[in-house]
Automatic annotation (TrEMBL):
One Pfam family per UniProt: Transposase_mut
Protein's name in the database: Mutator family transposase
UniProt entry keywords in alphabetical sequence: DNA recombination, DNA-binding, Transposable element, Transposition
Source species of the chain: Dictyobacter formicarum
Annotated function: Required for the transposition of the insertion element.
NCBIfam families the UniProt entry points to: transpos_IS256
Chain segments carrying region Disordered: 57-86
Length: 410
């Protein structure tokens, strides 16, 4: 609330007077109930006050002879609002110069109606669900075209958001993907929606952007990070990724000083694909010895021991870890409590989990634009909960200040 602004208080006596003939509380909200009548009456009274201001004299009052314009009856308009459809009488003047401010010409909905539809859409409700919900709550029948027109306006916001300027430094960047089904050329295809989640110097999470990938690879990722760079992101200390094809190479091309850290959760999960169910617990425990080692040299010893024990049965696992070792080792530069911040994409996976709850209702999206609309609106709701820095941020920040001192923002 702005300085000096005050809440309007309605006297209790006035409320009692209005409700004295209301014997059943249900009458307040029913079709033709008290709230709907009160809404209509208040709107009409405000419009009458606007007309008085416009003409320069009150209704039934004496007008100046120099004022040739006079009242000229009323026109009826039906408005859609939170109490359903409300019919009001709009005053008219003879020369048709009256332009109501409260209910402008051609407006058919009370303020806030579109916001309610967007809120339902952001929670993953389909067009059919929204139609049913609005009818049940407000007694208003709305068409799929109307819902589409309301949500279509969001695309401009998505475009502005996707192109907004970014901070120059994000100490940590997480990248992960979410798979959605999209209709394309009369076929249903799985499409990967890639999300980039940054952590700023205050430890606050921020979704930097989202991209629907048609063909994952170095060229695609190079375009993504070129976009982030052009929007102002000049430095990343650690990028935690899950081994997406071409991603590490693209980061190292545009951000050569960035340490690319593979997500250990994904590394273990990928390793266990090669393991029979009866050995999974033992293999996972031995891999944990590798990535939880105190130093890189100790981790390599544990990796050698792992190979001696399991290579005969699952030789591809140790080869996988050795092939990706340059993107495993960055975590060993940090103490144990800091590693938990950087070696897993849990921060962005929690975002994906929330988004899946929203997108699962949209089993098939009609277009790429529909995906962007739903995810953008859902992210607004998710981000409202990001009021605190990520866990262990202060000690992590102190480590970053030492490790990346010459690049650390002042």
């Amino acid at each position: 609330m702005e300085e000096g602004e005050k809440h309007m208080t309605i006297r209790r006596e006035l409320i009692d007077e209005l409700l004295k003939e209301c014997s059943d509380p249900k009458q307040l909200l029913t079709e033709g109930g008290f709230l709907k009548q009160l809404t209509g009456s208040l709107i009409e009274r405000c419009l009458e006050a606007e007309m008085e201001e416009h003409l320069g004299y009150p209704k039934h009052g004496k007008r100046n002879e120099e004022h040739t314009n006079v009242r000229n009856g009323r026109s009826r308009k039906t408005l859609k609002g939170s109490q359903g459809e409300v019919t009001v009488d709009i005053p008219r003047d003879r020369d048709a110069s009256f332009e109501p401010v409260l209910i402008p010409k051609h407006q058919t909905r009370l303020e806030g109606f579109e916001e309610k539809i967007l809120a339902l859409y952001a929670r993953g409700m389909t067009t059919r669900d929204i139609q049913a919900q609005v009818h049940e709550l407000y007694g208003v029948d709305i068409s799929p075209t109307f819902i589409s027109n309301v949500t279509e306006a969001v695309l401009d916001e998505v475009h502005q958001w996707q192109n907004r300027p970014l901070e120059s430094v994000y100490p940590i960047l997480y990248v992960d993907c979410l798979v959605v089904k999209v209709r394309e050329n009369q076929r249903i295809i799985n499409r990967a929606l890639y999300l980039a989640l940054g952590v700023d110097v205050e430890g606050q999470k921020e979704l930097l952007g989202m991209w629907l990938g048609h063909h994952e690879g170095a060229k695609f990722w190079l375009s993504v990070f070129t976009e982030l760079h052009n929007r102002g992101l000049k430095d990343i200390f650690i990028a935690c990724v899950d081994g997406l094809t071409g991603l590490p190479e693209a980061i190292e091309t545009l951000y050569p000083q960035t340490r690319v850290q593979l997500c250990m959760v994904h590394m273990v999960r990928h390793s266990l694909k090669y393991v029979s169910y009866k050995h999974r617990k033992a293999v996972a425990a031995d891999l944990k010895l590798v990535y939880s080692a105190a130093t890189e040299s100790e981790a390599l010893v544990y990796l050698d021991l792992f190979a001696e024990k399991w290579d005969q049965q699952y030789g591809s696992i140790s080869k996988l870890w050795r092939a990706n070792w340059s993107h495993v080792m960055p975590l060993f530069a940090f103490p144990e409590d800091i590693r938990k911040v950087i070696y897993t994409t849990n921060a962005i996976e929690s975002v994906n989990m929330s988004l899946r709850k929203v997108t699962r209702n949209h089993r098939i999206f009609p277009s790429d634009e529909a995906v962007y609309k739903v995810v953008y609106l859902a992210m607004h709701n998710i981000a409202k909960k990001w009021t605190m820095p990520i866990r262990n941020w202060v000690p992590a920040l102190n480590c970053f200040a030492i490790e990346f001192g010459d690049r650390f923002p002042q």
